[in-house]
Design goal:
The chain is an alpha+beta fold. It folds into two domains: 30-115 and 177-249 and 350-414, FAD/NAD(P)-binding domain (3-Layer(bba) Sandwich); 116-176 and 251-347, D-Amino Acid Oxidase, subunit A, domain 2 (D-Amino Acid Oxidase, Chain A, domain 2). Helix content is 32%, strand content 22%. The strands form four sheets. It has an eight-stranded mixed β-sheet with strand order 6-7-5-15-16-17-14-18, with helices on both faces. Helix 2 runs parallel beside helix 10 and helix 3 (90-110) packs across helix 10 (375-392). Mean pLDDT is 92; it is low at 1-9. Bound molecules: flavin-adenine dinucleotide. The site of flavin-adenine dinucleotide (FAD) has 41 residues, from helix 2, strand 14, strand 18 and helix 10.
């Protein structure tokens, strides 16, 4: 927005005003209100982004979440926005690059704070480090500004981090990190301001196909008749089969995320060190994610069979938080006085080939599936493309590799 030179507003007020106008215009449906009614099942970051983008297309949206908003994978996530070497093959890498572009768009549309400071990654084994060097060459060939950098540069970027004996680490300056709960709430608030209805503590239990072509969702708060419904139910293993007649082979794995109390700034970038991932948010909270997973004991395995998202007691949560904090202290010794505030268990919604499942169900064409890992990196682009497919019938060709009816090959990644 251009501010006229003759105005009496200070530059700061003018910038604030321009931001407020940009926000308000992003919360106005870009299209005339349509008659279509779409239910979005699942109030994590994927369902929230799809609801926002559908509302922008003028669709009448009802989002239904069985718990509170953002209590599952989208809370127990490390929330690193990236298109790094692990995003294979090239089409999936390119899709994640679109994810980063999408975040820059929604960041300005909805004023979502994203910390774009890049990431630093290295391994302890020489063989793995050599492989990383090749992977960074591939990243460069695929358009990433990634590079291997030596100890002097590493120290100047992160003076509080000990990089050990490695002589270089991978620097990916395009990466960012976000507070996923805040981002989900921002999507939801914007969707609501455009007329979306949000129902929490309400579960969709079954779906009936009606003769007039619509679908009737049976929910714990009564029946709802819609034209389409989106299954953004994360790692819930039964939902796709139960609600859309599609089997999505998933290999959900748990991860533990520890969140500290606010602390003075210790690190600037996302640190992907051997055994632990670390970043520090703008509010000072440090986010710690384990890489190896909890120790494989019989007691752990038995507990995990029931896919808990909470620890059996506060003491267990504390112990896991301290376990991860101690790994992080090897790399950032000043973290010894960091206090852990919360520890979460997140279950990755992970189709067995490691790629997203996005698109209509062949068995039930009113159903649209959106189930994926890297859902934080992908939320804005998935929301945008899914909304265009559902609301306007515009097929997004870059989703063709991720359709629910593909044949799934097992690829072990996480
Ligand atoms: C430990 C961990 C680390 C991760 N790190 C990263 C990372 O660094 N970067 C990245 O991009 N991604 C990361 N991910 C993946 C990312 O967090 C997920 O892909 C993303 O959060 C998925 O969002 P979602 O909305 O699909 O799922 P969820 O957040 O799980 O939301 C699904 C919702 O559906 C609801 N639901 C289920 N069934 C029903 C029903 N029948 N009726 C109503 N509601 C229902 C659930 O209650 C839930 O709230 C990580 C995940 C984990 C677990």
């Amino acid at each position: 927005m251009d501010i006229p030179a003759s105005t009496n507003l200070s530059r700061r007020t003018a910038i604030k005003l321009a931001a407020a106008i940009a926000f308000l215009s992003s919360c106005t449906p870009t299209k005339k209100q349509s008659d279509k009614h779409v239910a979005v099942i699942g109030g994590g970051i994927i369902g929230a982004s799809i609801a926002y983008h559908l509302a922008k297309e003028g669709v009448h949206v009802t989002l239904i979440e069985k718990d509170d908003l953002c209590t599952q994978a989208s809370r127990g996530t490390f929330a690193w926005i990236n298109a790094t070497w692990a995003k294979q093959p090239r089409h999936y890498h390119a899709f994640n690059q679109n994810g980063l572009t999408g975040w820059r768009r929604v960041q300005s549309e909805l004023e979502i704070p994203v910390r774009w400071q890049g990431s630093l990654e290295w391994f302890s084994s020489v063989d793995r480090q050599n492989k990383l060097i090749n992977q960074i060459d591939e990243q460069i060939a695929w358009g990433e500004p990634a590079q291997m950098i030596g100890q002097d540069k590493l120290k100047s970027l992160e003076p509080n981090v000990i990089f050990g004996t490695v002589d270089q680490a991978a620097y990916s300056p395009n990466d960012g990190a976000v507070d996923p709960v805040l981002a989900t709430i921002k999507f939801i608030e914007a969707a609501k301001s455009m007329g979306a209805v949000i129902k929490t503590n309400c579960s969709v239990d079954s779906v009936k196909q009606l003769k007039n072509g619509q679908s009737e969702l049976s929910t714990t708060a009564g029946d709802l008749v819609v034209d389409h419904y989106v299954i953004a139910t994360g790692a819930n293993p039964e939902a796709p089969q139960h609600l859309a007649g599609v089997t999505i082979p998933q290999r959900s794995t748990p991860g533990v995320i520890a969140l500290s109390k606010p602390h003075k700034r210790l690190i600037n970038r996302i640190i992907v060190a051997p055994g632990v991932h670390i970043h520090q948010r703008d509010d000072g909270r440090i986010v710690l994610g384990e890489q190896a997973g909890a120790p494989q004991t019989q007691a752990h395995n038995e507990r995990l069979m029931h896919r808990p998202n909470q620890f059996p007691s506060e003491e267990y949560a504390r112990q896991h938080g301290q376990r991860i904090l101690h790994i992080a202290e090897q790399f950032v010794p000043q973290m010894s006085n960091v206090e852990i505030e919360n520890v979460y268990i997140g279950w990755r919604p992970l189709p067995i080939d490691g790629h997203p499942v996005i698109g209509r169900s062949q068995a039930q064409p009113n159903a649209y599936l959106a189930i994926m890992h890297s859902g934080v990196s992908l939320a804005p682009i998935v929301g945008e493309l899914a909304a265009k497919e559902i609301a306007l019938g515009i097929e997004a060709k870059n989703l063709n590799k991720y359709r629910p009816d593909r044949s799934f090959k097992t690829i072990k990644r996480y």
